[in-house]
């Protein structure tokens, strides 16, 4: 308590977001490569919002996301000034609004005046986004408990993961994918019994190395930072940029579109090939699309995908099928990439290399070109250290970096609990977009090509080192506002997400802060069908002077809706 005011009374989410932007991003030595102009540009970022936290999680998710959006606004300001010669613009970030990026999908609606369909309604899949997960076990009661935390023989907590097919992990653990459960059986018990026969380090090697499945021991933050892998990536901020000089490639921006590439849509004309799935990497392209970039996502009719996520992450993107097992489709992708400015690769390490579209192959495509390429790749563990080859997901990153352990401790438990919401996923996406903005600025000054390393762990280590958890008094009050709920290690997001949405909508403080009608808008989405509209979260960056107008040129859509080509008119709604 200071001057008679308690920590809880004086705490301000907007003020803390501002502090994070200034001290843990702009002046963070891990981001010393940012353009020097950003030290002036960030001063035009303003934060507003509800002072006391609204989201009952011990980690400062709201402050973190708002600070990242502020960092994005500052980097965009530098680009606006350098490319268009305009003064730095005021940018307002509402901290309540910014938080909706990782939870707004629950409240989005198709045709809000008539159907009012959400991604949780069966008709949503039947009519707009057919399910694309092919594994018969993915939606089974036992298969759904594959992505969860269980206790090992030596008393550690261990996160297994189903990915998009739980069968390989189930078989590795000796669980029959076709088993029929007896009435009253808890499917978690089936996994718990199997995991309890292994020591944690043995199971870690067994699942990751012998079976190539995503899994990890749940570490503490201290254990992660002291580990060989943590140390190998400690020099990285939210991303790492590598310049590939080439004397043939002079400083340049992307090719402008007359009358369209303006401050109003600052990235208009920027062509982005999106080779991604699920959340983190797709969020990079969507963030760029918000400022006018043209994004063409390439999917495959033969590769499973989480269709419901395309509803949220497909804004501003066309979506075309190519089968990379076919040479003619690989050639088509080469042609598309050669006519692009940015490539985003979000598949597990090694996948795109197999088809000839890894980092080295794409850089080689541009060796003789007058304009370089920006190649961004995203993974879970980071691009340095002994675990960089592994596949992973948000829950895996949360577990290995200690985020899950600290959430459990905050609820008075000596066990790891996966934090609710895909916060690390979306935060990694915003971070990747910021890195691409920086690479675009650098290419305009130095030429050449750029490689951008992005990872879930890069965001997670910034969260634990810089953003951190709430002060104990603030967390105690926040937690008590929600009746001191307790979740346990085997409560996956399938349990916690519905519970959190119920708590947030029923709590007067949180529902008022987060479900403000001003944060929402109704957009057309012709890619979903003629006349279709969607109620969705408005772009989080607001420019009060009105010169910059964030938004999306094209609506969201299912996979394979478009033809695999760049349209002449970048405002074309459907590529026929």
UniProtKB/TrEMBL annotation:
InterPro entries: CoA-trans_III_biosynth/detox, CoA-Trfase_fam_III, CoA-Trfase_III_dom_1_sf
Domain of life (superkingdom): Eukaryota
Species this chain originates from: Tetrapyrgos nigripes
Protein family membership: Belongs to the CoA-transferase III family.
Chain segments carrying region Disordered: 554-576
Taxonomic lineage of the native organism: Eukaryota, Fungi, Dikarya, Basidiomycota, Agaricomycotina
Basic and acidic residues composition-biased segments: 559-568
Protein name in the entry: Uncharacterized protein
Gene Ontology MF terms in the entry: catalytic activity
